[in-house]
Every structure is written in structure tokens, then in C-alpha cells.
Amino acid sequence: MKIAFHAPLKSPDHPVPSGDRQMARMLIEALCLAGHEIVIASDLRTFSRDASEAAFAALCSEAEREIVRLRELWRREGPPEAWFCYHPYYKAPDLLGPRLSAEFSIPYITAESSYSYRRNTGAWRLAQDEVAAGARQAAVNICFTHRDREGLQEATPSARYAMLAPFIDVSPFRELRRTKVDECRLFAVAMMRSGDKMDSYRMLARALTLVVDLPWRLTVVGDGPARAEVHEIFTGLPAERLEWRGEVEPQAIPGILADGDLYVWPGCGEAYGLSYLEAEAAGMPVVAQRTAGVPEVVRDEETGLLTPAGDVEAFAAAIRRLLSDEALRVQFGGRARHFVFEERSLPAAAARLGEILSEFVGMGR
């Protein structure tokens, strides 16, 4: 089937890497693997950092022009057989798909749509209304976490839902070679920006000061506008304990993670966190908080340890436990790798997407 794919937050072709762009690209790969032809319908980005009725009106005008373009294109060349929207939410609603799907009588599908009543303030409500209307119209809303499904279902109980677990392409992790060293190597991969990422960096730095008596070395992969502030946060730790790798190409991540022993990232506000799955695929156990969507990708006491949200001492104690028990680290790391390869791989996601589209849209191979 020919599917028009749209990601209103960030197009798969956007030049700036992020987890959102990565997941959009992997969804396209999974859909292709499931036997469908994918066309990126539009690069229109409807992201708004701040609530503003004027900004929303401007986006709607831009969307109207894009609808006119796509309508003319489809009338000439024929419409797709479905519209697939990835990650519509209050800061980036889909202003194209619902209109065009209704006009051309094709199924509308969402993936990782999210809705929260606490965002129904000011101009955000305008975008939230678009998200809710899209969810009600959708042939199916594909949810990656139970948290997202519960929030969306509360707003649109009559809509149709299916679950798809977060996944990654495991092929780059199959043939990894580790370099053995004496000290325990800790890893964290994250952009350096304000908000939840900065909160996680602060929590990690505070926790590591509580385990400085043990031998370890932390490698941080990532960069961003808050780089100077992040570096400042870690000045209380010995400089020789820290390695700053900066931004690296996505294809380099598996090789970098291959030398890790323990992945330590609090995950404040994480939707789920693809970096956790990548660390697990590399055979690393994870220490994170039991918050937001993190439990969807890390299994407590199986592939890592999850601690109460905001509890720095508990987070540090979990790091200490795994730093002090190499056998447990190896056991958790083996389970983590098996978990991702068997349950969270691209082929597994493709099979699940095939089932969902067959059931809700009637799209077989």
C-alpha cells in the first residue's frame, strides 16, 4: 500500500538529529519492511515553542497552502491509500492529515499521539483540539507507551487504539567488540539543552558525587546550547573521571557504547528514550528513574534498575549496587541485549505494524 508519512514535529529529512527524527526514520523502515510504499507527504513543521494564538493562526495559514499543493498533486497523480502521522501533540499538531484524509476518503493513522488535559490553557488548547479531533478520526492510534494511551483515551474514549513497543534497528549492534579495562565505564548519551535534559544532568552529577569512592569513569556523548552549563554542573567531580565526546554521528554510537559497562541516565520526563534501548542492545544494564515512559524500555531487576522519581540517593545507591557487583552487571547486560534483540528490533516492529494495519485498516502485505 502507498502511505503518505508526515511528522509535524520534525521531518525525517530534518538536518538536526534527535530521538524524534530517529524514530520517524525507523517507522518508515518498519513500514517498508512490512511491505508498504512510503512517501514523505510534507516537510511542514508545525512546532511552536510557546503558546500564541497569532503563531497558531500563521501555522494554519501555512498548512492551508500546503493542503492546496497536496490536493492538486493528488488529483494529478492519485492519492495515497493512507495518511500516517507520527507524533502529533500540543506543540506540533497535524494540520494536514485529517483534512486531506477526509477529503480523499483514505484512512488516517497516528503513531505516538499524545494528549494531556493540563495543557488545555491559553493558545495550547487550539492545538490540543486538533490532536483530539485527529485521534477521534483515526482508523487507529498507535501508542508506544501505556502512559500516552491513557492520556489520549481519557480525552477520546471512543477512538481506536493499538500498542507498538518502542524499538530500534539492532543490526549495527550485532558484531560489537569490547576493549577490557580495569575501571567500570559509565555512559550517558543526551543532548545538552534546558528543561528535562538539564534536570537529568543535574541529578546524574549529584548522584555521582555519592559514589566517588568507587572506581569508575563517565563518558558523556552529546552537545547542545547548554554545553557550558552542563560542564559547570560536573565541576564538583574529578576531571579525570569525565570524558566529553561531544556530538557524534548516529552510526558511531554502537561502537562507542560497545566499551560501556553501565548506562546511567535519570530520564527526567523521557517519553521512553531510544538511548536506553541502544545501551541495552550493546549489552549494558541501565540505571534510570521509574518515571514517564522509561519503564516501557527498561525492565527493573532484569535489564537494569529503576529508582523512584526525584530520589537522588536511591539513584546513587542503584549505581553503587551495580558498580560493586560485576556478576550482576554481566547478568543484567546479557538479559538487556536479549530483550532488545528479541522483542524491540526492527523486524519485530514491522511484524507488529503489519498486524495493526491489517486489523484496523485492512492493509495486508
What features would you describe in this structure?
The chain is globular and about 65 Å long. The longest helix is centred in the first third of the chain and has 25 residues, at 53-77. It is of the alpha/beta class and 365 residues long. Helix 1 (19-33) packs across helix 12 (346-360), helix 6 (196-209) packs across helix 10 and helix 9 packs across helix 11. It folds into two domains: 2-167 and 345-360, Rossmann fold (3-Layer(aba) Sandwich), CATH 3.40.50.2000; 171-343, Rossmann fold (3-Layer(aba) Sandwich). The strands form two sheets. Strands 2-1-3-4-5-6 form a six-stranded parallel beta sheet, sandwiched between helices. Strands 9-8-7-10-11-12 form a six-stranded parallel beta sheet, with helices on both faces. It is 41% helix and 15% strand. It starts with a strand and ends in a 5-residue tail after the last helix. The relative contact order is 0.12. It has helices at 19-33, 53-77, 97-104, 124-137, 146-155, 196-209, 227-233, 253-257, 274-281, 312-323, 326-343, 346-360, and strands at residues 2-6, 37-40, 82-86, 108-111, 140-143, 161-163, 184-189, 216-221, 242-246, 262-264, 286-289, 304-307.
